[in-house]
From TrEMBL:
Protein name listed in UniProt: Glutamine--tRNA ligase
Motif extent ('KMSKS' region): 270-274
Upper lineage: Bacteria, Pseudomonadati, Pseudomonadota, Betaproteobacteria, Neisseriales
Gene: glnS
Amino acids binding L-glutamine: D69, Y214
Limits of the tRNA synthetases class I (E and Q) anti-codon binding domain: 458-537
Species of origin: Aquitalea magnusonii
Domain Glutamyl/glutaminyl-tRNA synthetase class Ib anti-codon binding intervals: 342-442
Length: 561
């Protein structure tokens, strides 16, 4: 990632720690991991974490594991596992060895729990959830010891075995660590490490009716994989003492170090799987991969390129400070990468018919044009002209505003890669709407300036006879509020973020586009000249049959003004 765009490596506190650990000989190589829970599709916040973890492994020639943190069977599925793998690969990263699963370690985790019981550091507790809450205390008051805390090792071993064997109902018992109910850190107040839950697991099926908790599972999984630097977001800072406590109190040869960085928050988007899931479940978007979703699959379908997202991750940096980033930063990075990657063609999204009255097949010539002004290797194509062409409705103004350089009644404009034309007549329907322009070609202007006058404006166009029809989906931001989940009403309560959905976030039009695009494969990115970047839809575009485009982003930021 550092060599891409020849951008210099921007250091951060994590790189500094790694540099020191390598220099001091603490580690000879680094191992990181990306540990998503397969309970949804990955979003742009995960992209930050992926670029960080896999990017560090690449830069330091270390390794990065992909580990599914699958300890909540009810919410997890193979569909989510598959989409997570796809997203990581699509971003251009390669995990070390096979995909790993926390559930691969269920036996080991059980054995460590037995070890903790034997050393008197874990006990089976019969308090129910409500009682447990009452005993836990608060941020200002210490908790109270559970009445079951002093069970003998033999009794705990017997009860834990029977928990595993399914002798007790769900929720009736837990296994807890014996740390300190008076600790200032509530995470250390005898945390639960196992609960009884009869739920079918997407990988272990019905083998287990007890499942380990996240904090307990995570540190041991890291240690079993020989992770050197375990990077997570800031909300886990208070969990670090527990991470270390568990590893210090079991027989395990490796003790990874946890470091926290701030979560990415992207304005005009949501970065919570739970809230994104709500949009999908309520049918407010067209699935997790809707091009308006800030999911990696959504961004992919929208036409964002992996290089653009990686550039974005590089720009937003890694620190412990707030990481609230405007959407324009993401769109800007994407646009910058697309500029050089995308062939350019002409398309008319909102057409008016222009009849070229003096078109003469024997005289009027077409030219060929490069697909990219700075990349001759992209090739060229003929841009055919015909008697009837389409131009963009807003490139014509009957009553032009000051400094207008496009077409107007009696005025002239150049057709891109073609002639200068003059508008001689404006034809309207009964409602006064312009339906056609009759224009004449100045045949002496192909590839040269007209004699004795300047024509400044250049507009895009397509030949009616040669262009193809394409379905074009014009996407815009999904929300009208920069922080849709942080708006409070008069009563001080959060307003439901679904109220701030942008009703204009999707408009579909039938456009006319140069026929070259019909041959493009799905997920081909183009610049439509003067309009923006567009991609052939990954699912609906049918090569050679039917063109379907999604608008990725405009040519410039239209939101910040
Ligand atoms: P969500 O709240 O969306 O469910 P999560 O943190 O619960 O997110 P996980 O699947 O546990 O989702 O996340 C996997 C990894 O991605 C974790 O290491 C987590 O810290 C990181 N991550 C999640 N969201 C962000 C974010 N917004 N910015 C940076 N990293 C993130
Ligand atoms: Mg999580």
């Amino acid at each position: 990632m550092s060599t891409e765009n020849n951008a210099p490596v921007v250091s951060n506190f994590i790189r500094n720690i790694i540099d020191e650990d390598l220099a001091s000989g603490k580690h000879s190589a680094i191992v990181t991991r990306f540990p998503p829970e397969p309970n949804g599709y990955l979003h742009v916040g995960h992209a930050k974490s992926i670029c960080l973890n896999f990017g560090l492994a690449e830069d330091y020639q270390g390794k990065c594991n992909l580990r599914m943190d699958d300890t909540n069977p009810e919410k997890e599925s193979d569909e989510f596992v598959q989409s997570i793998k796809d997203s990581v690969e699509w971003l251009g990263f390669k995990w070390d060895g096979n995909v790993r699963f926390a559930s691969d370690y269920f036996d080991a985790l059980y054995d460590y729990a037995v070890e903790l019981i034997k050393s008197g550091k874990a006990f089976v507790c019969d308090l129910n959830a409500e009682e447990m809450r009452a005993y836990r205390g608060s941020l200002t008051e210490p908790g109270k010891n559970s009445p079951f805390r002093d069970r003998s090792v033999e009794e705990n071993l017997d009860l834990f075995t029977r928990m595993r064997n399914g002798e007790f109902p769900d929720g009736s018992k837990t296994l807890r660590l014996k740390i300190d109910m008076a600790s200032g850190n509530v995470n250390l107040r005898d945390p639960v490490i196992y609960r009884i839950r009869r739920a079918h697991h997407h990988r272990t099926g019905d083998k287990w009716c007890i499942y380990p908790m996240y904090d307990y599972t995570h540190c041991i999984s890291d240690a079993l994989e020989g992770i050197t630097h375990s990077l997570c977001t800031l909300e886990f800072e208070d969990h670090r003492p527990l991470y270390d406590w568990v590893l210090d109190n079991i027989t395990i040869p490796c003790h990874p170090r946890q470091y926290e960085f701030s979560r990415l928050e992207l304005l005009y988007a949501l970065t919570s799987k739970r809230k994104l899931q709500a949009l999908v479940t309520d049918g407010l978007v067209d699935g997790w991969n809707d091009p308006r979703m800030p999911t990696i699959e959504g961004m992919r379908r929208r036409g964002f390129s992996p290089a653009g997202i990686r550039l974005f991750a590089q720009r937003i940096g890694v620190s412990k400070g707030e990481n609230i980033i405007d959407m324009s930063v993401l769109e800007g990075a994407v646009r910058e990468m697309l500029e050089n990657e995308s062939p350019r063609v002409m398309a008319v999204l909102d057409p008016i018919k222009v009849t070229l009255t003096n078109f003469d097949a024997a005289v009027t010539a077409s030219r060929s044009a490069p697909f990219h002004p700075h990349h001759p290797e992209f090739g060229e194509r003929e841009v055919p002209i015909a008697r009837e062409i389409w131009i963009e409705r807003d490139d014509f103004a009957e009553v032009p505003p000051p400094k207008w350089q496009r077409l107007t009644a009696g005025g002239e404009v150049r057709l891109r890669y073609s002639y200068v034309i003059k508008c001689d007549e404006v034809i309207k329907d009964a409602d006064g709407k312009v339906v056609e322009l009759k224009c004449s070609i100045d045949h002496d202007t192909l590839g040269k300036n007209p004699e004795g006058r300047k024509v400044k404006g250049v507009i895009h166009w397509v030949s009616a006879e040669h262009a193809i029809e394409a379905d074009v989906r014009l996407y815009d931001r999904l929300f009208t509020e920069p922080r849709p989940d942080a708006v409070r009403g008069d009563d001080g309560e959060y307003v439901d973020f679904r109220q701030f959905l942008n009703p204009e976030s999707l408009k579909t039009v039938t456009a006319f586009v140069e026929d070259a695009v019909l041959k493009a494969a799905p997920e081909s990115r183009f610049q439509f000249e003067r309009l923006g970047y567009f991609v052939t839809d990954r699912y609906d575009h049918q090569q050679g049959v039917r063109a379907v485009f999604n608008r990725t982003v405009g040519l410039r930021d239209n939101w910040s003004k």
